[in-house]
Design brief:
With 720 residues, the protein is an alpha/beta fold. It has 25 helices and 18 strands.
């Protein structure tokens, strides 16, 4: 019997055909057993894929069409007893493990009657495998590009482009793969996720969930803040959870035990009757059917708190969830900051305690564009992040363990400056390969915004979480592979060279320490509080201006500044190649817009290096004049820096015309649910950090309060 959705699409297709708006060159029929239309996971995927194919081919795309079609997509009948079978990664776990159904798939194409009829048969054992198999066919073989939640490239399929017989398969490299949206920061979906009254809030979230499914992802997580309207929000959360489940997505919420910073949602706030507060908050939270709760157990990111009390409360929460929400698993993250020796002894792990504690999983977190094994990653006061690599391998032996890297680092590092940092691609692929080698079952990416080309990082990570093979030959993978599908013709080599150039200068030569903007802790005069969380020069800017020796000045003048100049000069030449290739494309095309965005991000990164070089010339000239007891004649350096900033602002204004979400949401100061009260691209709209650096140099003012945009008390939780 024809299902309503199938009948509706058939009628619409016929009407369009009769009206002449569809020029039928070939026809497609998606054939499937009735059970697939009875289940949301496959029903929604079939409907979505049908509509996408209709847009691409402008031809009839029907369901279970009895008449002859040119192309048949034949979907399998799912055995209910096998529909929830675990993946191989889950079967290997020797500890409590929350599994996701196996979702590998393969397509087999057979061309008949001298190419007049094509049959593609999907082999999959689960509903999730059918869904992911359909979308992978579109993106990996037919030329669709699900590159951004708000934008999709739909190819012009004048004919069925797959001509030969073949077998093509997709194997997930992780049991859980997806994204954490860090909604402690004012990124694109912070308000839609936390404010049910935001315009089209639920639809915006659904659009992102659809993007996850289209890219083969099965996990979605975001931060809950204590600034929400509780009665309204929990109903919103229920709708989000239900839609995620209807699409085959695990849904998780990130909360804290008692973290006070950045308005994080706390399970307890008062120091007395903690378990009662925790119970009440868990009962409220579990009105929505979360699959996971990712819990922060520290008081603040760098303050571990009382270890023994934390462990007692953690065991209490695990036990409560087992009794009251057995389908919800507790997770916790290990920060990249090196933990100090605790002041209190942990609970002795007797067999009962160990068995309970193993119920929770853990995420090993790394930051910025460094991978977990490289020797030089100067972040969070570490030489590198290898301690997180060792931690991940150790925990993998005793509990469910996922890797948790970043695709951007908002605060003063990349997209808030802004800079498009291509080494993220190299680092994330290297880490995926490391995780696969050690059979780590989960890969969850910490995402901090998609503009300025950062959608490319998330999109690449999502696609790398699968291994595809054509006729049993695995697809080769490399960092810029998906970027190569986007730039204009003859621009691929330039993009590769730009990645290599950034890798060489920004990472291998440690030039990144001069490219980042200073943040609050970089300028605190109290040494014990002035921690280095991202790369920063050992010779500070006020020291260069006021105290540096002649030898120290020469190091900057003859080593650092030439490196900045060389990087910028080479980058600008390659950006020009990208722009020239783009100018040869038809205007207002998919390739034109995306190539321009990537070129703009790489262009402004080069200008950032020129700007920093001019500031350094000004500072060192000031000090040199004082040492030589000669008049200062370096004012032109600041003028040049200001001119470079004006050039960069022109790029910013061009990009703002193409932001995918409303400008007020992304760039304005306004009350919101975060501790910031401005959009995550607010520092970019007027290049705040660039202007601040000019004024610091000019006025010799180097302290956190100077031209400050951060409400530090609110961010660290000392005031609301």
């Amino acid at each position: 019997m024809c299902k309503p959705v199938s009948l509706l699409l058939l009628i619409v297709g016929c009407l369009l055909l009769l009206s002449g708006s569809i020029h039928a060159q070939f026809s497609i029929s998606i054939n499937y057993p009735p059970a697939l239309a009875d289940t949301a996971i496959t029903r929604l995927a079939i409907t979505d894929v049908t509509q996408l194919l209709q847009q691409a081919c402008q031809c009839p795309v029907t369901h279970n069409e009895p008449a002859a079609a040119d192309v048949y997509l034949n979907l399998p009948d799912i055995n209910p007893s096998a529909a929830n079978q675990p993946t191989a990664l889950a079967l290997r776990a020797g500890f409590p493990y929350k599994h996701y159904p196996a979702h590998h798939f393969s397509w087999q194409q057979t061309v008949l009657d001298n190419g007049k009829q094509t049959n593609l048969t999907l082999n999959a054992n689960t509903l999730q495998g059918v869904s992911f198999g359909l979308y992978a066919l579109l993106q990996e073989l037919l030329g669709f590009a699900f590159y951004h939640p708000k934008q999709t490239y739909v190819p012009n399929l004048k004919e069925w482009i797959l001509k030969d017989n073949f077998t093509w398969s997709g194997a997930p490299l992780f049991d859980k793969k997806g994204f954490h949206l860090h909604t402690q920061h004012p990124i694109e979906l912070t308000e839609p996720l936390l404010n049910p009254n935001y315009p089209n809030a639920l639809e915006e979230v659904k659009t992102y969930i659809d993007w996850l499914v289209r890219n083969g992802q099965n996990y979605f997580e975001f931060c809950l803040l204590n600034s929400i309207n509780r009665p309204l929000w929990v109903k919103h959360a229920q709708q989000i959870c239900h839609y995620a489940h209807s699409r085959g997505i695990f849904i998780a919420v990130d909360v804290s035990l008692h973290m006070i910073q950045q308005k994080t949602f706390q399970l307890y706030e008062e120091p007395v009757r903690k378990k009662k507060q925790i119970t009440q908050n868990l009962q409220w939270l579990m009105q929505a059917p979360w699959d996971f709760i990712n819990m922060e157990f520290s008081t603040a990111e760098f303050i571990p708190g009382n270890t023994q009390k934390k462990e007692q409360l953690r065991l209490f929460i695990i036990t409560w969830l087992q009794a009251n929400a057995p389908n919800t698993k507790l997770m916790g993250r290990q920060h990249v900051v090196q933990e100090k020796q605790p002041h209190t002894k942990p609970i002795l792990p007797d067999s009962a305690t160990l068995a309970t504690d193993q119920q929770r999983g853990i995420l090993a977190h790394t930051v910025m564009f460094y991978n977990m094994t490289e020797p030089n990653a100067p972040v969070y006061q570490n030489q590198n992040q290898r301690h997180m690599y060792r931690f991940m391998l150790q925990q993998h032996q005793i509990r469910e363990t996922w890797y948790y890297p970043e695709s951007a680092y908002w605060i003063t590092f990349d997209n808030s400056v802004p800079m498009l940092l291509l080494p993220y691609l190299q680092a994330r692929l290297a880490d995926i390969d490391t995780c696969v080698a050690h059979q780590i079952p989960g890969h969850i990416t910490f995402s901090s915004g998609w503009e300025w080309g950062y959608w490319l990082i998330d999109w690449s990570i999502a696609r790398w979480s699968w291994q595809y093979a054509l006729n049993n030959i695995p697809q080769l993978r490399y960092p810029e592979m998906y970027a190569h599908k986007l730039p204009a013709k003859n621009a691929q080599l330039a993009f590769t060279l730009l990645l290599q150039l950034q890798q060489q200068y920004l990472k291998d030569s440690s030039l990144m320490q001069w490219m980042t903007a200073m943040t609050v802790t970089d300028e605190i005069p109290i040494k014990s509080l002035a921690n280095a969380y991202h790369p920063r020069p050992t010779t500070s800017y006020p020291f260069l201006r006021n105290k540096a020796s002649a030898a120290q000045l020469q190091t900057v003048q003859h080593t650092v500044i030439p490196q900045l100049d060389n990087f910028a000069g080479s980058a600008l030449q390659l950006v020009q190649v990208l722009n020239d290739a783009n100018n040869n494309q038809p205007a207002d095309t998919f390739i034109n817009h995306l190539n321009q965005e990537l070129a703009d991000g790489l262009h402004i990164t080069a200008l950032r290096a020129i700007h920093r070089a001019q500031i350094l010339r000004y500072l060192t000239a000031h000090r040199q004049a004082k040492l030589n007891r000669t008049p200062f004649t370096g004012h032109s350096y600041l003028h040049h820096a200001a001119n470079i900033r004006q050039q960069a602002l022109q790029i910013v204004k061009r990009r703002e015309n193409h932001y995918r979400y409303p400008l007020p949401l992304l760039t304005h100061k306004q009350p919101d649910h975060t501790a910031y009260h401005f959009g995550y691209l607010y520092p970019v709209t007027n290049l705040h950090f660039w202007h601040r650096e000019e004024q610091q140099a000019k006025q010799n003012q180097y302290h956190p309060a100077f031209m400050n945009i951060w409400q530090v008390g609110r961010i660290i939780g000392l005031k609301k």
